[in-house]
Amino acid sequence: MRHTIGFYGAGNMAQVMIAGLLNSGFYQKEEIYVYNYRYEPTLKKVKEAYGVKVVSEEETLFEQTDWIILAVKPAVLLQVLPRVKKYLTEEHVLVSVAAGVSTHQIAALTGPHKIIRAMPNTPATIQQAMSSISPNELVSSEQTQFVTEIFNSFGKAKVVSEENIDAVVGVSGSAPAYVYLFIEALADGAVAEGLPREDAYEFASQAVLGAAEMVEKTGKHPGELKDMVTSPKGTTVAAVQSLEESNFRASIMRAVKAAAKRNHEMSEET
């Protein structure tokens, strides 16, 4: 039986997911329903842009779909869950993309249901997300695989234990910001050496993109790839030495741990 999908929320993340599902051919527009909490003009925009089915009542969304993507902010999610609890059946699978809200917290507000926590990152906007998928104990392996395929439609997705969500946030969720800082710093260094800024950003961003592709496509350890370009007495080994002297590696590790720590704190605050 083909599952219908309902989006509770029609903001940026919901639209990214809808676009991914449609562009990949994984879903057709008539199989997707969308309800937007409070703001009606956004719902109209989604209807015009994607041709999906939109509904104006919460109850209708739950009646028409068996998979519900909870695409609202954490504070909103905690407000609406007790209200929509009455619409839930044993057939529903809830997929939350709200940061800092655990499957246990969702279950406490809805009762025992199949709940999956997903954590995509911002490159989802260009169909290049890295998402974690964390199901609770009521979700079957087939259902887990299905939602993984949903998130694969706009990037890559991997099943991880929910206890590792903090680490995922540090290494993936917040990581685009570290990379942007790195690209900016690379470009600044090139500008200091005389390269025009527009060219500097192009060289820096392409270098980062290419290096990431090398790690993914060759399957080689990053250290091995680094060694391949560090010739004796060459420019690269001089640069690597400078980075090591500046505690570059330790700084990145501290950043990942800081993001993970803050995510854990946010979970305790909700």
TrEMBL record:
Family classification: Belongs to the pyrroline-5-carboxylate reductase family.
Keywords for the protein's UniProt record, in alphabetical order: Amino-acid biosynthesis, Cytoplasm, NADP, Oxidoreductase, Proline biosynthesis
The protein's role, per its UniProt record: Catalyzes the reduction of 1-pyrroline-5-carboxylate (PCA) to L-proline.
GO cellular component terms attached to this protein's record: cytoplasm
NCBIfam families: proC
Phylogenetic classification of the source organism: Bacteria, Bacillati, Bacillota, Bacilli, Lactobacillales
Highest taxon above the source species: Bacteria
Pyrroline-5-carboxylate reductase catalytic N-terminal domain mapped to chain residues: 4-100
Name used for this protein in its record: Pyrroline-5-carboxylate reductase
Gene3D superfamilies per the UniProt record, alphabetical: NAD(P)-binding Rossmann-like Domain, ProC C-terminal domain-like
Compartment(s) where it occurs, according to its Swiss-Prot or TrEMBL record: Cytoplasm
EC number from the UniProt entry: 1.5.1.2
Name of the gene encoding the protein in the UniProt record: proC
Top-tier EC class: oxidoreductase
